[in-house]
Amino acid sequence: MSKFQLSLSAATLAGLAACSATGTSPDTGQPRSEVGTTRADPATAPAAHRVVPTSEVEWGPLNPARGVDGPRAGNLWGDRTTAGPSGFLVEFTDGFESPPHLHNVSYRGVVISGLVHNDDPDAGEMWLPAGSYWTQPKGAVHITAAKGTRNLAYIEIEEGPYLVRPVDESFESPEVPINVHASNLVWLEMPAGRASGHGPEVAYLWGKPQSDQRSGALVELPAGFAGSIRSHGASLDAVVIRGRVDYRVPGESRVQPLEPGSHFSSKGESSHELSCERGEGCLVYVRTEGKFDVSPGRPGK
Question: Which CATH superfamily is domain 188-296 in?
Fold first, then answer.
């Protein structure tokens, strides 16, 4: 089954992408990896907040069987080698191309840097640049390739462990594989930007952004933005895809610079104060269980 490129309305895109979700195990209640954790003062900060700068991610082989010749991976939240959902970074060398293979679980991916091709072994080339989104259904044979100075992607799964299997173990899945080039994303203005005419925008990728549902979206923050991302549900996990986000660590006065690949998260209703004051703006992938919003202006101003 060959993948296809989409240019659809946000509602249709979210509906199709939801087909790639596997399992219903909630993120809440799963143990979080302590790798690369920067903690605020426990006496003053909500224990549910967590931030992992890219520089503090611990790396290891994605597929130990390939050793040093294979991609590297680093957990951001959860643990891809155990049961339950997780999110992790994968780094490919320039010119990497995997042999045909499959996975026991489905995954979603967002390209952070470089170019990634992920498709049926007989499909034509479709290189996805930074900000692109794809899904890989469980059981389906495919190849993954990358080219660029640094090829980095964020991957998440709804159930673990994440394993690589040979082609003779393929099996059918009702899920639909999707490739969405960054240029084909459908952007909607968020309420926070309507007054200024140049505020945050959102591209819904999968799931249903409702009070009791899990979903994923890309949020575009314009250069000069200062405000907060607020979660109104059970959990929020966010990964910086482009630009530098300056994140105010809860309970502390310091600001933590977060480069692409960095992660911040929270449990329950929460607010993440941040700014994007350089370059061409920032792109953040936001995964929530429940609704979220983006508000300009620092608290108290």
Answer: Jelly Rolls (2.60.120.10)
